[in-house]
Amino acid sequence: MTKKMSYTLWTVQGLLALVFLFAGGVKLALPVEMLTKQMPLPGWFVRFIGVAEVLGALGLVLPGLLGVKRGLTPLAAAGLAIIMTGATVLSLVWVGAAAALSPLAVGLLTVFVVYGHTATRPDSFRVERAISVQSPPEDIFGLIDDFHRWGSWSPWEKLDPAMKKTYSGAASGPGAVYAWAGNSKAGEGRMEIVEAVPHSRISIKLDFLKPFEGHNTAEFTMDAAGGSTRVTWAMYGPQSYMLKVMSMFFSMDSMVGKDFEEGLAKMKALAESQKEGVHTCK
Prior knowledge:
Layout: H1 3-29, H2 32-38, H3 43-66, H4 72-94, H5 97-118, E1 124-133, H6 137-145, E2 164-169, E3 176-181, E4 188-197, E5 201-210, E6 214-225, E7 228-238, H7 241-247, H8 252-281
Antiparallel strand pairs: 1-7, 2-3, 3-4, 4-5, 5-6, 6-7
Helix pairs in contact: 1-3, 1-5, 2-3, 3-4, 4-5
């Protein structure tokens, strides 16, 4: 987000916060009888709107000021936009077009806040985790280069024991394809190895079909250092508008990163146990 956009958003949010604090405060402070004379609505509903306006006003400014739960700001703005939509319609029906202009203008400003906090999010994402494995790169490379072996370490295999798996193309390496279709947690998708540099790097085209469509790249790199190998697992790709909205409330790095950590830990245990087995046989 540019500094100009940031300043503009803060100005609009501050003004809106004052407007809604005042409007909500009035609805909470004045007697219900007086409020229902001005607005032919149930008293409890007017009070509810007042509470929502005050909370929405606080949501516009407090997350940014305190530096916590910043995703609450566009959520608050969206809630206030809904309130203003209702106010615009009611003003248009009960009073006339002129009276509807004020809530319409305020509503458009709340929509601008939602847009400013979502559309200006990064256009791409990257999640990356790494681990040190006490095994040579060639032992680890084989666990990744062959989709048939992913079941022994992939963190997503447990999501649906009855998941349908389909292998096609090459047995391993470039051209190898793995497709899956499972329950709501596992979803549906397809992976294809597009590049494999022996014992060094593997690049995979990753297509998610359900529950959300997404087309990303997964990449594994193996860097030998003495008797160990540093394995890095990364996923990156474009960030759609829907992902931008979701990223305001859920961290892609936190959600996917913990799965990467689990998968790498299993891969490490498997590779190191294989190495110990070889040494025992010798």
